[in-house]
């Protein structure tokens, strides 16, 4: 009798636990949301063998997910390779959409699959609100075919652009997380005209022979966070140029980059700004807790003569340089031509820039370069707690300045502007 009473008492509790467990399992199976619709590429005819074209299958899965009234997941199944040609996935969508890349998206190796009009893109997301791209899988640009046809590899060839692996245009509330992006044809990730963006835990890799394979490119976007990313975008070799780990261009406002490991590559660059006498605006940039290994530059701002506008309220802090060529550099006289550029009267104004808590080693003697415009000198430049020494103890470092208004706080090594090149405009050191 007692045992029967115990069973009667426990039955409702056991039933409740069973239902709770079932609901948790259902939620887990749909990426944490029990009401999520899942649209697998395989369900829409994808082969996933890395040989057959799966572009149409992805397009169909995307259209179905984008039309879903409930939050939707486009699933790229694990352990398979889905071959894609150029594709644009359009919004707006009826609800939020996540693209869960568990397997690999790989670009077609045939350059003829791109028309001249399309050749700057591969996978594009356009006008999507509340988009997430994640999953722990890979995006493989299959870029070797493009690299060997680049004028950076073969100067006898005409210079033409190549596709960006992942492009995000006019997106809001965007998350791109937990992906491996490798061997892009040119830029790996481009964020353009977007708002409220988070890029996190990305591994971006291209071999030393890859030209112009920038890691993350940001332009005309605001409220962007980049965190916990590892970027290796090429190594100088013959005619090959290293490429930026993070490039920050016109129209970028309120950007925070933190916990990034970079190198080899060009480093982290703001610019180029003001090319072709254009107007440029960049503000509210923070680069924090970054390690750079063997990069051409460390913390860099570059603008063309003849441009206009501003680059202001910029902080580079808590950075460690390992054998970097130019650890700290502002260049308002940037010129990428074979012959010297003509001096012009206008320039993009560079102001309120802080270089703080930066240490490590440099491969060149000039550890700090402030090469500013004669007509629009850079001003409000702060150098604070800096210790930059020659790699392997090969002599002493120096700092060069031209038309720069700066302040020093704490210990700064090398001493600011010890090697004079034109006019140095020094404010009081504190």
Automatic annotation (TrEMBL):
Keyword terms of this UniProt record: Cell wall, Cell wall biogenesis/degradation, Glycosidase, Hydrolase, Secreted, Signal
EC number(s) from the headed UniProt entry: 3.2.1.15
A biological-process GO annotation: pectin catabolic process
Pfam families recorded: Glyco_hydro_28
Signal peptide interval: 1-28
PROSITE patterns per the UniProt record, alphabetical: POLYGALACTURONASE
Superkingdom of the source species: Eukaryota
Record localization: Secreted, Cell wall
Active site, renumbered: 266
Catalyses which reaction(s): (1,4-alpha-D-galacturonosyl)n+m + H2O = (1,4-alpha-D-galacturonosyl)n + (1,4-alpha-D-galacturonosyl)m
Molecular function terms, GO-annotated: polygalacturonase activity
Chief location: secreted
Family annotation (PANTHER family): PTHR31375
Family of the protein in this entry: Belongs to the glycosyl hydrolase 28 family.
Protein name, entry field: endo-polygalacturonase
Organism: Setaria italica (Foxtail millet)
